[in-house]
Amino acid sequence: MYRPPSPRRPSLLDLIILLILISGAGWLYYQATTNMDYTWDWSVIPQYLFRYDAHQERWVPNLLILGLMTTIRLSVWSTILATIIGIFMGCLRISKHRVRRWLGGAYVSLSRNLPPLVLVFIFYFFVGEQIMPFLGIEQCVDNCAPATKSILEWLFGPTSQLASFLTAVITLGIYEGAYITEIVRSGIDSVDQGQWEAGNALGFDWWSSMRFIILPQAVRIVLPPLAGQFISTIKDSAIVSVISIQELTFQGMELMAATYLTFEVWITITLMYFGLTFGCSLLARKLELALRRREQG
């Protein structure tokens, strides 16, 4: 049975490093509170998290929480799309056919060697302004019943921005899909070659061996790095703020421009991002430990 290693007691070097970090943080705080020509005002921040709606007679999320929810929606849908792309392209990467391998490699090279900001602008001006109007998504949403619109808003955010939201999801999905492609490829490659031979001995063709023997084993291997890639997607989602997707970073920029509370706003947003990604990191760690215990009995 798997037992995690016992934590070692902190050494003298650990204590010195910790002391240096605390001293550095204290110096920065002293500089920020005494030498900066800046008036701190934390009292206004809570009202941008939640506000009391007199019409509904209850507390409702305000700008920052709404931005955080959009970031979560964006990350979840982008990761789902990236996983689909990654599995498909990962299978192409290990194909016996040269053209398929070339297609998978070209996709990975192109996506990973372009700045994500360039991809955002390419897909925003091409997908957003050319394909989305052709698909008529906004007209379909306008003709939906109120109940359907409520479901769409819960899943994707405000329906008035659905076309831009889908453009951002496609952009992030393609960008993150290149990394998931390599995760899937390495996971399949790590399955023992004897498993392929076992499939051949049972009379399976390539696809049947992949479906019934290789992929179930590869999934257990790639789940921990996939969880890490989801955290990376959360952080990368901030880049779509440049096309006015109202996620957390965008709301922070709008709030900073309206209140001039630069430090309070960005410290709050930093803590919100950290809370979200750190929580996901803990879940990914628990998943990894659970899978390791299961493998080792």
TrEMBL record:
Keyword Transport assigned: yes
Stretches that traverse the bilayer: 12-30, 74-94, 106-127, 265-284
Species in which this protein is naturally found: Desulfoplanes formicivorans
Record keywords: Amino-acid transport, Cell membrane, Membrane, Transmembrane, Transmembrane helix, Transport
Function description: Part of the binding-protein-dependent transport system for glutamine; probably responsible for the translocation of the substrate across the membrane.
Membrane topology: Multi-pass membrane protein
Protein name: Amino acid ABC transporter permease
NCBIfam families: HEQRo_perm_3TM
Annotated localization: Cell inner membrane; Cell membrane
UniProt GO MF annotations: transmembrane transporter activity
ABC transmembrane type-1 domain residues: 68-284
The keyword Membrane appears for this protein: yes
